[in-house]
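Q: Convert this sequence to structure tokens.
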Amino acid sequence: MNATFASHPRLVSVDAFPVDESVYGIRGLGGNVCDWVADPFVRGGPPLDGDRALPAPDPASITDPTTIFALRGGNWCGSPRGARAAYRGRHARLGTRDPVVSIRLVRTI
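A:
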């Protein structure tokens, strides 16, 4: 995040802060780049089933050029408040670029 460096904030390797690793082995969730997720951004948050978030109701929204998507995690030029894995923001439409937004490839074990 923006207060990490004595000079100017910048993107770093995911291995730059070895202490920034979750119990699941995930690195870089709170301050490198935000993760673009396939769910549309909803101001009040995703729909819930009890305390569990439900998936996006319409998978076709992923290819809709007017959809604003949700972001998760902090980024390198964000504030301390936004540099949390639980951070939730919004991102512009498909086809746009942003130096603080990326994707995280995952797979089941």
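DSSP finds no helices and six strands in the chain.
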